[in-house]
C-alpha cells in the first residue's frame, strides 16, 4: 500500500476520533467492541464500569475525572440507558 494512502487513512481516522461531538451522550452496542456490550459512543468505556462507579456513590463529575475521554453528558446518557433497561 502506498505511503500517501496510509497517511490519508490515518489522517481521516484521527479527524473522526477528534470529532466526537455528534456522539456525545450516546450509548451503543457495536459489533467487535467490548464483546458487543454497551459502551459510550466514541470510546470503549463500558456502561458496566460507569454503573459500578455510580453504585459506589460517585457523582457524574467524579466519574468524568476517572475517565478523561468522557463528558458529564455521557455519564447522564449511561444512567438514563440503565434506568430504561431496568424499566423494560
Automatic annotation (TrEMBL):
Entries under Gene3D superfamilies matching the protein: Winged helix-like DNA-binding domain superfamily/Winged helix DNA-binding domain
UniProt name for this protein: DUF433 domain-containing protein
Amino acid at each position: 500500500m502506498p505511503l500517501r494512502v496510509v497517511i490519508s487513512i490515518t489522517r481521516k481516522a484521527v479527524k473522526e476520533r477528534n470529532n466526537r461531538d455528534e456522539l456525545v451522550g450516546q450509548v451503543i452496542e457495536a459489533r467487535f467492541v467490548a464483546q458487543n456490550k454497551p459502551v459510550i459512543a466514541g470510546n470503549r468505556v463500558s456502561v458496566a464500569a460507569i454503573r459500578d462507579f455510580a453504585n459506589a456513590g460517585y457523582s457524574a463529575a467524579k466519574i468524568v475525572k476517572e475517565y478523561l475521554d468522557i463528558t458529564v453528558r455521557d455519564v447522564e446518557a449511561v444512567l438514563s440507558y440503565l434506568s430504561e433497561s431496568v424499566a423494560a
